[in-house]
Description:
Layout: E1 5-15, E2 25-39, E3 50-53, E4 58-61, E5 68-71, E6 79-81, E7 84-85, E8 96-101, E9 108-113, E10 122-125, E11 128-131, H1 140-143, E12 147-154, E13 157-161, E14 163-164, E15 167-171, E16 184-192, E17 197-203, E18 206-216, E19 218-223, E20 231-232, H2 239-242, E21 244-248, E22 251-263, E23 270-282, E24 287-290, H3 362-371, E25 375-383, E26 386-396, E27 428-431, E28 433-434, E29 443-449, E30 451-456, E31 459-464, E32 480-487, E33 493-500, E34 505-512
Parallel strand pairs: 11-19, 15-24, 25-28
Antiparallel strand pairs: 1-2, 1-13, 2-8, 3-4, 5-6, 5-9, 7-8, 9-12, 10-17, 12-13, 12-14, 15-21, 16-19, 16-20, 16-22, 17-18, 22-23, 25-26, 26-29, 27-34, 30-31, 32-33, 33-34
Amino acid sequence: MKLNTLLFAFVTLISFTGCAGDEVTANQDEKQGMTAFVVEENASPVTRTTAEYDGSGINFFWTPYDFIWVNNSAASPALQMNARNDIPSTGKAAKAKFWFNGNFTASSYPLRYTTGTGKGDEVRISSYQIQKEPNDASHFGSSGDCGTATAHNANGVYKFTLDHKASYITFLPYSSDGSIKETIIQKIKVEANKAIAGTYSFDDNGLDTTSPTGSSNDITLMLKVNYFDGFPVPSSPSAITNAALMVIAPGTYSSLKVTYTIYDPETTVSGDIVKEYSNVTFIAGKNKKISTDLKVPIMGDDFYMWDAQQEAWAGFKMYQSFKVNAPDSHYPSSKASDPLRWYNDAPGNPVAANTAKDCPNFNEALWYILKGDPHLVSGLCSIKGHLYGMDGVWFKKKANIPGFRSDEGPAPYNYDYRLSSNNLGSTIDHPATLGEPSNKADYFFVAAPCLGYAYSVGTTVGSLGGFGTNDGNPTVWGTVFWTSTGNSGFGPQAYGIMLNTTVPAVRTQSWGRGNAVHIWKGE
């Protein structure tokens, strides 16, 4: 690594070019009783302190709160911190001057750069770091950056190059498929199998990572200050757009988990995308780039009144609302005005003939729910680049459910609910297991966004955040699917199933056919 060159000289302020072998000349601007360290503008940026990523590595800059320590065994105490510098109180600088009190006459001196504790023999790598702007590591000085050097006397001028001793990560998250293009990244959390942060002893060789105090196996990097802030997500890696930089303890970690917390300001949905790695080594003074393509499942935006001939927003997709309680006049209002998008209003317990005809009938749905060992999962999905919750369920395949039949449900519901004389008069909530089944080959999976549209007589209501009740208010229940079985117990209704990953349970009951939810094909 090519390193920045610093100089210091007793009493006299020295100018220099910053590269080994360069000529050094003294000016006559004396600081009585002080020794000056000088950084030239043309010196390599690799050994400054705060940083930015340039596409190939981290470029460092000096900040006003940087401190350098001289280990002078002839003095008491031996470690002496610089008394002043000339770095502007705001911003960052490529050139800096540091002054020390006292005389320096030895042929060489060990030097240290430490942060976090205000001591020359300790460094605190923070488990909570805050970056306020993309590609700006001005927080490094409070996050645990550090370095060492040996200053050598060359014709009365002490010259040294600084070696950084912490390790660094540059995160460059992006989303190539645009699934989360409307979201922001609020924070990035790194978790390891052993300590990656804490207070470390520090000597002329660098960090002692064997026994930190106040240690933590995780580091959270907040991106901007407020909860609703964050960095955007580009379609390809872009340092200027969202480079996030973290200080981390050097070492080899058998497991490393990186969690990206994303948030959609419009839908107010947030969630995590997790990436896991094994046997990762961070080398002191080196930067590791982690450029991750973040994706969530892209879902369709089709919702159906029960067994309608067309999707509820067919021909009016540009008006489709996904906002909470945001009515829109283009939602179907009657069979007379919207015959193709309107539900199948056949009397009794009709069998679906249109868009719901391939859904399982209600008898089959009962077998899946009561005897199919349902396993629920929840996650994130994308519709038009926006973030929404998603629920999914694993059911056993019918071949793995003993006694499965289509003409009646399982006991004690062993009736044929396709007949109008056998209407289910109550809601059934059946417990479910959270997480995927271990033997997924015996199961099938169905998932959809936690969205639906509720219809109440005379008004149209679009509801977000779960299936809406008839007054348009979201419920705690999530994703809803129609079956192919209608009923008329309380007016024109149809049977469906609903997923709740909070309880967790699968519910079955009947709803008004004018609600627009999801259809599913079964296995």
